[in-house]
Design brief:
heterodimer; A: 313 residues; Rossmann fold; six-stranded mixed beta sheet; elongated; B: 271 residues; 14 helices; 79% helix; globular
């Protein structure tokens, strides 16, 4: 495969097996420069394995991976010089201070760390000087996560690879991460983030890829994904209505979720007109239309997988 | 060697400096005190009495080395071949050499290798730390010996030459380097430090016992050549022989081969 330098990430039929276990199978994916790409999947789907292949921490059993046109295997130093990485589990020396950890990691990077930028990141994540002077054994899970985010962003790398970036953060800090991600995109940097928090992905990502049992089953924009899901429509009636015959033909794109004498719950893809025409002769009291959520679509892909998330109401 | 390798090396040295300096001070003091013990025994004219106390069967089993040991030079040189000193040094080398496995286990390596740091740099870093630690500790032993001999030994005593002290230090350093290489090879393949450390430690202890068996029991002698400790012969030096370069070379080659394996294994493995 010829490497395309205009793509931030390109995976070409990447596979990884551990003994007889297939962690990844035939994954092909392009991530464009300047976008925020959400990499979704349940635990064990292969998200972290993919990330580790990009960083050359894990070697693929098949296929090739590229970052900015450079082969992740043969040009890994060049790749890693352009990446800021937040691991899912921050491995640090517990007897080092936060400040010493950041300084050490800054010295190992290819780009000089701008102290002003580092300070701004620390302020954004509310890590004070006294916090940085403490040993990491005294850090809470959330503080470690914030330190991890600072070390990933401090070098201002063109590509940020983030493994579950808001894991362990409180809602305020999650908000700070979302704002930072949006700013990062505005600056032309690319973000490749794994997550299983669907509202978060829906909020910040331009596109998503869904991994299921090591295979990529969906790549789409977050806008398109809503169209895939259809709108949720709830029709409330003033008085009991006769339940339609099961053989009744519903308008195209209409899916019945639940029917009672006073409430119809429907999912409608496409125009609402035909359904409104049908409702015109019925004693409608209220009509509630809600935009679909990412999880409405993804649940279809997760549906028969053990450990799939329950619907959040 | 790159700037990043040195950054990693300084970081690791800073982390273990307390242990290294502590052991160096202890062994300096031990070597210094051994010179004072030897001086005391000389003043008391006790070496002849000590030799007479050795039973005949021990003399015949141990050979001339038993009597060689009971001399001023033998006592002064004790630290360079005492099992506890060897155990401490080899143990420290194993602890340092297993740092790559520890970093894989704690996932600190994810942070370092996510930056433009080559995998070879991780191994080279460990080699630098091993070399520095070994040089400081064995250097402190030499200084301890020489300080004791220079300042506080009665005149008229035949002191061991500096060349002998240096040769003893070289043999000790070569056996230490050999085990450092073996431990590094094990650490390069391991996911947990305790596994690599235990494997290297048990191998070293088994090799020490095998060598001991080979020296004490004729039928085991052919097998004992497989033990690196077979090539560690300080008593021959104390008895007046020159440094056996072949023995030193064997130990260095084993250590180097194991180090080369460490480079290859660490470069190819999944982290």
């Amino acid at each position: 495969m010829s490497a395309d330098a205009t793509l931030a990430i390109s995976l070409d039929r990447v596979g990884k097996t551990y003994g007889r276990v297939k962690a990844l199978s035939d994954v092909s994916l392009d991530v464009r420069t300047g976008e925020i790409f959400g990499f979704l999947g349940l635990n064990g789907a292969g998200k972290t394995t993919t990330i580790r292949i990009l960083l050359d921490l894990v070697r693929p059993s098949a296929g090739q991976a590229f970052v900015f046109g450079m082969n992740c295997r043969t040009e890994s130093l060049g790749v890693r010089a352009r990446v800021g990485y937040l691991p899912g589990e921050l491995g640090v020396y517990r007897d080092m201070t936060g400040e010493a950890t950041l300084a050490l990691l800054a010295r190992l990077g290819d780009r000089a760390v701008d102290t002003g930028r580092q300070r701004a990141l620390l302020d954004r994540f509310e890590l004070s000087r006294s916090d940085l002077g403490r040993k990491l054994r005294e850090y809470s899970t959330g503080m470690k996560r914030k330190l991890g985010l600072v070390q990933a962003f401090q070098s201002d790398a063109p590509l940020l690879i983030l493994d579950e970036p808001t894991d362990g953060l409180d809602p305020l800090m999650q908000e700070a991460v979302y704002e930072l991600l949006v700013e990062t995109r505005r600056r032309g940097q690319t973000v490749f983030m794994s997550s299983h928090v669907l509202p978060e992905v829906e909020r910040v990502c331009d596109r998503i890829g869904l991994l299921r049992r090591g295979g990529l089953v969906l790549v789409t924009s977050t806008g398109d994904v809503r169209q895939l899901a259809g709108r949720n429509v709830r029709v409330l009636f003033r008085e009991d209505v006769v339940r339609p015959d099961p053989a009744t033909r519903w308008p195209d794109g209409c899916e019945v979720v639940a029917l009672t004498a006073r409430l119809w719950s429907l999912r409608i893809r496409g125009p609402l007109g035909p359904m409104l025409t049908r409702l015109a002769s019925l004693p409608v009291e209220d009509l509630q239309i809600s935009e679909p959520h990412l999880e409405d679509v993804l649940r279809r892909y997760y549906a028969d997988e053990p450990g799939a998330p329950e619907r959040a109401n | 060697m790159t700037r990043r390798t040195l950054v990693l090396a300084f970081h690791s040295i800073a982390r273990i400096r307390g242990v290294v300096v502590g052991l160096a001070v202890l062994l300096f003091a031990f070597q210094f005190l051994l010179t004072q013990v030897a001086a005391y025994l000389t003043r008391q004219r006790a070496f002849g009495e000590l030799s007479a106390l050795v039973p005949d069967f021990v003399r015949s089993a141990a050979g001339p080395s038993a009597l060689t040991f009971m001399s001023f030079t033998g006592i002064v040189s004790l630290g360079y071949f005492h099992p506890i000193v060897i155990g401490a040094l080899v143990g420290l080398m194993i602890a340092i050499a297993t740092e790559p496995a520890a970093e894989v286990e704690t996932r600190f390596v994810d942070l370092t290798l996510a930056r433009p740091v080559s995998r070879a740099a991780v191994i080279i870093r460990t080699l630098i730390v091993l070399s520095c630690a070994g040089a400081v500790i064995i250097g402190s032993m030499i200084v301890g010996t020489w300080t004791g001999l220079t300042c506080c030994v009665p005149s008229g005593v035949e002191r061991p030459s500096f060349a002998l002290t240096l040769s003893l230090a070289v043999t000790l350093a070569s056996v230490t380097a050999c085990w450092a290489g073996v431990a590094l090879a094990m650490a390069a393949a391991a996911r947990r430090r305790v596994v690599a450390g235990a494997a290297a430690g048990v191998t070293a202890f088994g090799a020490y016992l095998l060598d001991y068996l080979g020296r004490a029991w004729e039928p085991a002698r052919p097998a004992s050549v497989a033990s690196p400790f077979h090539y560690f012969e300080p008593m021959a030096l104390i008895a007046g022989q020159t440094l056996n370069v072949r023995n030193v070379a064997v130990l260095i080659v084993v250590g180097s081969a194991a180090t080369a394996i460490a480079f290859v294994v660490f470069a190819r493995r999944d982290i």
